Amino acid sequence: MATCVVVGSQWGDEGKGKITDLFAEQADVVARFQGGANAGHTVVVGEKKYKLHLVPSGILSPGKLAVIGNGVVVDPVQLNDELEYLKEAGIDVRGLRISNRAHAIMPYHRLLDRLEEESRGAGKIGTTGRGIGPAYVDKAARSGIRMGDLLDRDRLAQRLDVALASKNRVIERVYGYAPLTVEEVMLEIEESIQVLRQYITDTAGLLMDAIEAGKNVLFEGAQGTLLDVDFGTYPFVTSSNPTAGAATVGTGVGPRHIDKVVGVAKAYSTRVGEGPFPSELTNAVGETIRQRGNEYGTTTGRPRRCGWLDAVILRYSARVNGMDGLALNCIDVLDTLEDVKICVAYEYNGKRLETFPADLDELAKCRPIYETLPGWQTDLTKAKTLDDLPEAAKRYAHRIAELANCRLVSISVGPRRDQTIVLEPPFAEQ
Predict the structure, then answer these.
(1) Residue 243 in contact with residue 322, Cβ under 8 Å?
(2) Are 59 and 66 in contact, with CB atoms under 8 Å apart?
(3) Whole-angstrom Cα distance, residue 95 to residue 64?
(4) Among all residues, which ones are annotated catalytic?
């Protein structure tokens, strides 16, 4: 038996879906442990591209169980649409399992998310409007509706009646919007419930049974460490914990059963939405990275802000997550550059800062201190082994791992599954 957690070590969009899909070939079960449909994973298998939001990337590997854990907030309509998309693409989705403890996103969550973001004006936080935050608010307030509640129509109607009594007061009196009725909500989600009910079960028990049976289990996070509600650039964060510790809380598997944590990072930095970004490039180099890396959101289509790799962030992520290894993606995006830079520290008020600050005002005043390395100006996309890479590219990759204080476990030279140089398997013998 072995377990491995895959997490994002930057601001999300690092290519976790690709790494999870690759590692899933050696796994028996793949479990998603947090977030919602605001996550976007693009996985390329052969010439086919799959865009996933809620379903674990492991669904693309035949014969695997793909688990949506209790830490995920699930939009039934969105999930049903995603399953239809996968079925039409010829993917077998019978291995999907959904935790009966996972909280459900209701239509009023999406509406409130949009209305609240619009009301912030210039202070907006960049939410996707998918209802993720409001659903987590209800979970913490103990007024949420769980996926298990969807299986009993009468109980669901009763819970919706109670929920709408308070939600409609806000919708009407604060935002001046028309109230929702129980009938409207039920009508919108009823068809999806009928499809999803076959997959809803006690996934915590299923996962522990798999671990005790000696199976390989892969835990998949969404977003990234810098979007963690506790450890990220708050308030420009998501509403859950994308860090490795949440793998246990979000699936019901105890921490002593976690064997390995792999952090995923791009060979440069990106982020979507607002908030400080010390190594951001607003020049031609930044635009080159955006275009070559196709840096547009899978979920929203928004252009991502791009910059040099930030090793301060990687060191911080390695400590917060307890990372054993680093999966480095998108190194080929930098192929045309004459020089490549790594932000190794910040300058703050005339002093060198090597730790990531919690205070956003302080972070906004930090200026990057760069280490410049020679570029390789060689097409890396056909490389199959480490020896196929030019010395400058190998030096860059190993320097990043050294600064993060992690072993380098893989290097991706393109978006396809077969464009990954694996240096260390995810489930080595324990």
Answers:
(1) no
(2) yes
(3) 6
(4) 13, 41
